[in-house]
Amino acid sequence: MSFFKIIARRIPSLGLKLAQARLSESPEHYVKKTFSTALFLSFGLLIIAFTFIKKPGVFLFLPIIFVFAFFYFLRYVDVKIEKMKKQINQEIIFAGRFLIIELESGVPLYNAFINLSKNYEAVGSFFDEIVEKVNLGITMEEALNEAISTTPSPELRKLMWQVLNSMRTGADIADSLNAVIDQIVRQQQIEVKEYGRKLNPLAMFYMMMAVIVPSLGTTVLIVLSTFIGFQLPLSFLLVIAGLIGFIQFMFFAVIKSARPPMEI
Question: Which domain holds residue 168?
Fold first, then answer.
């Protein structure tokens, strides 16, 4: 048994995550690729550091940098899944209503899936896979079951499960989907309200830490250095400017990540 296969078996959910992220590679190959990327990056960073510092001792940090880089790149699949969830959640309500209109208009479920796959990029890709599997001879129920198991979005999973359940029980699919869509809308409205409550303290904290404190602190520092006769070097001021810019970037990233991924 290879070393990479042992690591892959230590992460039992990796196979499902790769399927949800639509990455067509085995867990062993993914771990091997991550290992190689982390190793090359670690050596590259240390070689760059050695050219500036000129001390061989920097290579002692290789294990620390490698471990950090390995686990960082290992989470690429999780980042991709979260990105897909956001894209799906932006379309799920409109795609669901589109499917309801198609079915209420008398369009067969198979053709409705085809039309849905052509009009919505994120959600449509999953229904396009269902259509392809049906064309290969798999039944609609089996294709839906496979799609449900590999769907990263809980909302899309609910929608597909409702379609599958209605097919098995003989219930009207459009009526069942209406109930699911209404539930998703209410859930997204709650998330929007929670985001609004989070935004006020975040904005106040941003004004304090990224605007008021840096500007006043820099001004006070310059005034004090003038009184004590200490000249601030340009490199020091550039470092402060860089830190302020980094703090502002982090705040914008936090606010953007907290924003509900939806269009209502």
Answer: 88-185
Q: What is the dihedral of CA 145, 149, 151, 157, to 10 degrees?
A: 60
CA pair distance 192, 70, nearest whole angstrom = 35
Q: What is the largest CA-CA distance in the chain?
A: 86
- Angle (CA) 162-133-142 rounded to 5° is 45
User: Can you give the pLDDT at residue 133?
Assistant: 92
**How many domains in the chain?**
3
Helix segments in the chain, DSSP class H = 3-9, 14-20, 27-53, 62-74, 76-104, 109-119, 121-135, 140-149, 154-169, 173-206, 213-228, 234-258
Same domain, 38 and 67: yes
Cα of 168 vs its chain's centroid, Å: 33
| Residue 134 maps to a domain | yes
Residue type, 133: K
Query: What digits encode the pLDDT tens for the residues 204-224?
Result: 777 777 677 777 777 777 777
Average pLDDT, the chain: 84
Mean pLDDT of 159-184: 89
Do 152 and 20 form a contact (C-beta atoms < 8 A)? yes
- The 10 Å Cβ neighbour count of residue 235 is 8
Q: Do 43 and 114 share a structural domain?
A: no
190: confidence class by pLDDT, cuts 50, 70, 90? confident
The identity of residue 219, as a single letter, is T
CA 90 to chain centre: 13
User: In terms of domains, do 68 and 94 share one?
Assistant: no
